[in-house]
Amino acid sequence: MDDQFTKQVMTHKTSAVGELLKLAQTDEVISFAGGLPAEEFFPVEALKQAFERVFRMGNKALQYGLTEGYTPLREQISQRLMHRNIRVSSDEMLLTTGSQQAVDLVAKVYLEPGAVILTENPTYLVALQAFRYYSVQIIPVLSDEKGMDPEDLAAKIEKYHPKLVYVIPTFANPTGWIWDTSRRVNLIEECDRNHVLILEDDPYGEIKFAPNDYYPSMMSLAQQAGSDCVLYTSTFSKTVVPALRIGWICGNRTLIKAMIHAKQGADLHSSSLDQQALFQLLDHYDLNAHILTISAEYQRRMQLMITLLHQQRLGQVNWTEPKGGMFLWLELAEELDTEMVLKHALQEGVAFVPGHEFYVGSPQKNTLRLNFSHTSVEEMPAGVERLGRAIHQSLSS
Ligand code: PMP
């Protein structure tokens, strides 16, 4: 039966690192690997009350819902987006099972086999996984901490005629980097001129360490320029809880309609019980205050992680201090391969994700991603010390 699978499944590689990291999910290992928010800060009481309110509404609350999602929640999200200068009505929005499903639906309705998409490099591993199921050609664009290199972008648009550019412009996964506004504007101009769609993936944009920092979303800039070349997706996974699996995608009405149709064929709709509960939560709970609290805590954890890394005297190592999000991206001495470092690290009792996983094409092997949001300040010193030992062992082996 194994040889009866689709070509996409047959070419799908199981990741050795993924398997190693699965083994590392024990209490003895301190993990900087997953992109997990801090459980201690989950708004558990507020969520319980939100669900209770839904149950008090009677049996009808447990009925099938609309594929596009619970209308009052779409309206509420559209209100929240106004603070980010994004103007979308509720019929330009689809609620999805996490933003992950939004990425998949875009590929499903817009990318025929062989279509070209451009991505940053490195970029979010599971988006790559989703795209690969549609047999598209993924072409990386040279990228640095300010975004995609404009010259390389222009050259690749001209050469490959891509249909889509997938980007995470604010506090990216895995790098934590933030695109310069000028690079954002440049991408929009290039894509608008060449009829290329941009998928802006923004799960971390609200997790800012300086609350007054403002990074204009690609969506808001495109709207200001009168272009509808951007689809915007985000999620409540990082700001409320991932278990709700509620994300959304918004933008061009015709595309949203196509995605609603595709989603109907896949799952009819995402959990309407959860959507109604989230609506109640947003109506009765100060989510903005909560986001300020978790952002301050993540900043504290990030700063502690950086202080501890300095104390490890790792020699040649580079990082850019994140201004938000959940990740610190490290570049170690050139001769190190972080897949080897991971083996030492797991023996020491600490986990991280080697950079290899996030690259399209040949990886920069001395890179790694550390998550700082999930590990408490009490556990952080032991974790970084173990990591330091693993890096020193790799340097001397
Ligand atoms: N995009 C990016 C860049 C992410 O980091 C994640 C979560 N790790 C997602 C999308 C998916 O998030 P969710 O489906 O939980 O909304």
From TrEMBL:
Keywords: Aminotransferase, Pyridoxal phosphate, Transferase
Transmembrane segments: none
Domain Aminotransferase class I/classII large: 41-387
GO biological process: alpha-amino acid metabolic process
EC number of this enzyme: 2.6.1.39
Record bears the keyword Transferase: yes
Organism superkingdom: Bacteria
InterPro entries attached to this UniProt entry: Aminotransferase_I/II_large, Class-I_PLP-dep_aminotransf, PyrdxlP-dep_Trfase, PyrdxlP-dep_Trfase_major, PyrdxlP-dep_Trfase_small
GO molecular function: 2-aminoadipate transaminase activity; pyridoxal phosphate binding
Cofactor(s) named in the record: pyridoxal 5'-phosphate
Signal peptide location: none
PANTHER family xrefs: AMINOTRANSFERASE, KYNURENINE_ALPHA-AMINOADIPATE AMINOTRANSFERASE, MITOCHONDRIAL
Family listed: Belongs to the class-I pyridoxal-phosphate-dependent aminotransferase family.
Record text on subunit structure and interactions: Homodimer.
Protein name: 2-aminoadipate transaminase
Annotated source species: Sulfoacidibacillus ferrooxidans
Upper taxonomic lineage: Bacteria, Bacillati, Bacillota, Bacilli, Bacillales
